[in-house]
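quick q for whoever's on today - can somebody do inverse folding on this one?? i tried earlier but teh output was garbage lol. tokens:
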């Protein structure tokens, strides 16, 4: 049961790049996470984005990032209030898919962000990613607009509030 488990979020380091590239090569990740470029030190150090390795019971299995939606010009969530955060993530370990970890660790990170004052959390799954959309809806996200094209690809804008 995942509800009783504690998820650990630690900052991504340059030493994590081989693991991240291995996860991004997995078909279930590659389908929705287009990038297979390694992060640079500058990207990992970017203060607009908090990039984390997610672990449970000492086992790293997922990547998650949250970011300031006001950090980029013309971002599709720039209309949100000050302090709003965007989230993206994937489960890298295929053995951890479909057993509730996604809902549990995303929910844990949402609680962390809301507890630190985020007035709203935004996410933008691909409109055809039914599994992600179902998880987000279970966590209280709701679509706010029709699917749209952005500089980061096709998205379905979704928001959750505390």
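ok took a stab at it. sequence:
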């Amino acid at each position: 049961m995942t509800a009783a488990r504690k998820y650990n979020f630690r900052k991504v380091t340059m030493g994590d790049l081989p693991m991240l590239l291995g996860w991004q090569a997995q078909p279930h990740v590659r389908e929705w996470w287009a990038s297979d470029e390694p992060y640079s030190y500058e990207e990992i150090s970017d203060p607009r984005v908090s990039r984390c390795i997610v672990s449970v019971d000492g086992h790293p299995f997922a990547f998650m990032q949250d970011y300031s939606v006001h950090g980029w010009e013309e971002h599709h969530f720039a209309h949100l209030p000050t302090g709003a955060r965007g989230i993206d993530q994937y489960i890298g370990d295929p053995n951890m898919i479909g057993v509730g970890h996604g809902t549990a660790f995303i929910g844990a990170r949402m609680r962390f962000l809301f507890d630190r004052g985020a007035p709203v959390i935004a996410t933008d799954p691909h409109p055809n990613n039914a599994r992600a959309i179902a998880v987000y809806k279970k966590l209280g996200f709701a679509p706010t607009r029709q699917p749209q094209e952005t500089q980061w690809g096709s998205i379905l804008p979704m928001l959750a509030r505390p």
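fwiw The mean pLDDT is 91. also Residues 101-115 form the longest helix (15 residues). so keep that in mind when u check it
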